[in-house]
Fold Transcriptional regulator, TetR family.
Amino acid sequence: MGDGATAARRSPGRPRKADAERRILDAAIDEYLERGATGFTIDAVARRAGVGKSTVYLRWPDRDTLLVDSVLARSRAIEDVDTGSLRDDLIALSTNMLRFLLDPVGFATLRLAVEAVASRAAPQVTIDVAERHRRAAGVVLTRAAERGEPINPITRARVIECLYGAITLKALAHGLETDTTSDAETVAACTELVDLLLPLLLEHGRPPPDSVR
């Protein structure tokens, strides 16, 4: 009974490993969004997470590694889109990306890319996230070509870069003011971008088969 009582007394305030890790990762994102790279410290993360600094260091050797892991752990997977239409696929893909970047974790990823010069590990986050989007766009374009849509092999990479670059600028302009951006506005903005760039993606500006009425 004595041993059981002792264990019961010790359990409160001692988060389990998985719970402690989740709290640390959440605290790291919040700290970074509030203070940026220059104000991001292990001490502040530990205080916010309600754990000792040694608990953080047991899992992460330095602040850059912690920051990278916190962003990657909460980054959403890029949803696969297949509407049967290149235009609609690109609208869905770009809308997913803009929604992601307007989310606190997505915005943290974007901010990290801007501040990457001051961090040793941070560039890997931007490389990983960019590669996810690049792969998703590649799948959409390959599928469209297999359907017979006239993709221009010379312009395809540059057009996707332009599309994602414009989406990134929109996210930077909005910041974290997601309450003022409705989902309809997000879709409309991405539709406008896709319609502007789509002729450059197609050979000789020809429309895809399904758009011919």
About this structure: The longest helix spans residues 123-146.
